[in-house]
TrEMBL record:
Region (Disordered): 138-183, 419-455
GO molecular function, one term: guanyl-nucleotide exchange factor activity
Matching PANTHER family: DEDICATOR OF CYTOKINESIS DOCK, DEDICATOR OF CYTOKINESIS PROTEIN 7
Organism: Tursiops truncatus (Atlantic bottle-nosed dolphin)
Name of this protein: Dedicator of cytokinesis protein 7 isoform X6
C2 DOCK-type domain ranges (all copies): 561-727
Length: 733
């Protein structure tokens, strides 16, 4: 083997892959540590850098103070320094919709609650920027502005921008070939030495004063003058505009935050009349979205009973507050669609017998036959009077119906009148809904269903309509849940509706539907606060109904709102021993364990007190596993403690009057603590029910905890389903 030369012996034979493997193993692939390999100097390659060594970040403010900008006063300083007069803070009074500001009544509040309330009541702090319009964020460089700025500018074309013409390009190539043939004829074969090419080349323009001695200041001044000559006033704005789909920045002056409202609908309940009038009937309205399977508004309770019927309940009902006498309501719909229904539910005083037996007189007796059936009607009135006197504070489900809202809106908008009268029936064969004009209008036409998209669902411009609902469906004791209601509503839109084959309850409910005015008079918020333009407190009010949007609405909170909605859903006492068939649930909001600790924070329904300490669910006669459809609205205290809780007490109501038999017998208890780890406890619950009263200090524990010595229904299994929903601007969920 030949002997290696001296310089080759110094060449390292280490393979590159081995070097990479060694480095990656030593520094674990850290880019920051690998960077240290490039440092040349006093640091030895054997020195190791600890992986846990943290580098302090640069204090920007301190750096700017210790390193002042070394720029003389001039035009460039405006590009570097922040303008001292750009920002101005102005305080503007906050506009309040209500006569009284929505703040809690408590004097002592948690710090976070106090901060939230202060943010909802303080004046607006508005930051005004004088020069924001000069930036591209507020003044985007659009294509139209580009064309406007470029008017009058000479078009500059560079060699690289010119596309070669096919014919000219080929001629230039041929000429170049002919000229290059002379290169070989020259003695040295160089193009520079080619006499032929030198003769054909053109001289460059001479540079005047090239060799003259000129001061540097004079050269700078001349260059500055040349730069300013014909200079565009918005030089930087001539830069091509960015792609609209990928903007670098988009800034806009924000609007003053305000309370969110969807499209608003005014519903006035005018009258409710049955073929026979023997007892008071209680009604409620709510909006449902069938597609989303969601209730999209709270309940609106109204009372259309005569004074004679109201008099039957005076022993059980306290004097009515003016806020509970409303007969008109404003509904808000953020996402209107073809799937929204206005559902009307009716209840009556509890009496002995199931729903079918109690509804039978309303189906068979007619107003025209009142004289012929006088004795039977008197007997029914006497029985109703007895039940009102004894069971006046309990209710039972009675009937329901629904109005396909968008059909009515689209039909009213197409009629050539300022207002229309529409009669809605559920017994027509041509469709699930029909419309008949009143006697001043001739003819009948079926109400066609609209099939257009959500863009056509405009609730702000249709003509007001007066509806007459003529038929109601009898409630079924085993089909009271919301899931059953969604099935019924979906079935209503089919031509072969099963509901149309049912025997209806004949009635006349007259309702006005119209777009809500922008500033209605005598209006109450969901918290029962008077909206401005409320001249007289004795006038029957209009209620704003709180919306539960079908989908989330991302807007900031601007007002104090702290409401809780409780929805008892079902109870299963099939395995409970003893008599418990006519079951009602009493709901109370407690601040302690003592029975006197019930708080008067439950909103009243209709023709009653404004707030009460308890609310009862409707009774399904002789049903050990009833469904419920109640909505119980609670005004939450601003400050909650671990002792605040919802208490549910289950009672068996004795419909028959017997000796030594109490009217109501407690058959179970359960509860929901309001706070869990400092947060509001909401959602779906399946709770066990205790047969005995809860022990002391039970409110801080969950009923799922097996308390010693307590007896539970069905071996401590969950038998009571309830949903709790919070609408709060101070409590997170």
């Amino acid at each position: 083997m030949a002997e290696r030369r001296a310089f080759a012996q110094k060449i390292s034979r280490t393979v590159a892959a081995e070097v990479r493997k060694q480095i990656s193993g030593q520094y674990s692939g850290s880019p920051q540590l690998l960077k240290n390999l490039n440092i040349v100097g006093s640091i030895s390659h054997h020195t190791t850098v600890p992986l846990t060594e943290a580098v302090d970040p640069v204090d920007l403010e301190d750096y700017l103070i210790t390193h002042p900008l070394a720029v003389d006063s001039g035009l460039l300083r405006d590009l570097i320094e922040f303008p001292p007069d750009d920002i101005e803070v102005v305080y503007s009074p906050r506009d309040c919709r209500t006569l009284v500001s929505a703040v809690p009544e408590e004097s002592e509040m948690d710090p976070h609650v106090r901060d939230c309330i202060r943010s909802y009541t303080e004046d607006w702090a508005i930051v005004i920027r004088k020069y924001h319009k000069l930036g591209t964020g507020f003044n985007p460089n659009t294509l139209d502005k580009q064309k406007e700025r470029q008017k009058g500018l000479p078009k500059q074309v560079f060699e690289s921008d010119e596309a070669p013409d096919g014919n000219n390009y080929q001629d230039e190539q041929d000429d170049l070939k002919r000229r290059s043939m002379s290169i070989d004829d020259t003695p040295r074969g160089s193009w520079a030495c080619s006499i032929f090419d030198l003769k054909n080349s053109l001289p460059d323009a001479l540079l005047p004063n090239l060799l003259d001695r000129t001061p540097n200041e004079e050269i700078d001044r001349q260059n500055d003058d040349q730069r300013k000559a014909n200079r565009h006033k918005e030089l930087f704005a001539l830069h091509p505009s960015p792609d609209e789909e990928e903007p670098i920045e988009r800034l806009s002056v924000p609007e003053v935050p305000k309370e969110h409202f969807g499209q608003r609908l005014l519903v006035k309940c005018l009258s409710l009349k049955f073929e026979i009038e023997i007892e008071p009937i209680f009604a409620s309205l709510a909006l449902y979205d069938v597609k989303e399977k969601k209730k999209i508004s709270e309940n609106f309770y109204f009372d259309l009973n005569s004074e004679q019927m109201k008099g039957l309940l005076r022993p059980h009902v306290p004097p009515a507050a003016i806020t509970t006498l409303a007969r008109s309501a404003i509904f808000s719909i953020t996402y209107p669609s073809q799937d929204v229904f206005l559902v009307i539910k009716l209840e009556k005083v509890l009496q002995q017998g199931d729903i079918g037996e109690c509804a039978e007189p309303y189906m068979i007796f007619k107003e025209a036959d009142a004289t012929k059936n006088k004795e039977k009607l008197e007997k029914l009135k006497s029985q109703a009077d007895q039940f009102c006197q004894r069971l006046g504070k309990y209710r039972m489900p009675f009937a329901w119906t629904a109005i396909h809202l968008m059909n009515i809106v689209s039909s009213a908008g197409s009629l050539e009148r300022d207002s229309t009268e529409v009669e809605i029936s559920t017994g027509e064969r041509k469709g699930s809904w029909s419309e008949r004009r009143n006697s001043s209008l001739v003819g009948r036409r079926s109400l066609e269903r609209t099939t257009s998209g959500d863009d056509s669902c405009n609730l702000t411009s249709f003509r007001p309509a007066t509806l007459t609902v003529t038929n109601f469906f009898k409630q079924e004791g085993d089909r009271l849940s919301d899931e059953d209601l969604y099935k019924f509503l979906a079935d209503m839109r089919r031509p072969s509706s099963v509901l149309r084959r049912l025997r209806p309850i004949t009635a006349q409910l007259k309702i006005d539907i119209s777009p809500a005015p922008e500033n209605p008079h005598y209006c109450l918020t969901p918290e029962l606060l008077q909206v401005k333009l409320y001249p007289d407190s004795r006038v029957r009010p209009t209620r704003e109904i709180l919306e539960f949007p079908a989908r989330d609405v991302y807007v900031p909170n601007t007002t104090y709102r702290n409401l809780l909605y409780v929805y008892p859903q079902s109870l299963n006492f099939a395995n409970r021993q003893g008599s418990a068939r006519n079951i009602t649930v009493k709901v109370q909001f407690m601040y302690g364990e003592d029975p006197s600790n019930a708080m008067p924070v439950i909103f009243g329904k209709s023709s009653c007190s404004e707030f009460s300490k308890e609310a009862y669910t409707a009774v399904v006669y002789h049903n050990r596993s009833p469904d419920f459809h109640e909505e119980i609205k609670v005004k939450l205290p601003a400050t909650l403690t671990d002792h605040h809780h919802l208490l549910f007490t289950f009672y068996h109501v004795s419909c028959q009057q017997k000796q030594n038999t109490p009217l109501e017998t407690p058959v179970g208890y359960t509860w929901i603590p309001m706070l869990q780890n400092g947060r509001l406890k909401t959602g779906q619950f399946c709770l066990p029910v205790s047969l005995e009263k809860p022990p002391q200090a039970y409110s801080v524990l969950s009923p799922e905890v097996p308390l010693p010595g307590m007896k539970w229904v069905d071996n401590h299994k969950g038998v009571f389903n309830v949903e709790v929903v919070a609408v709060s601007s101070i409590h997170t969920q």
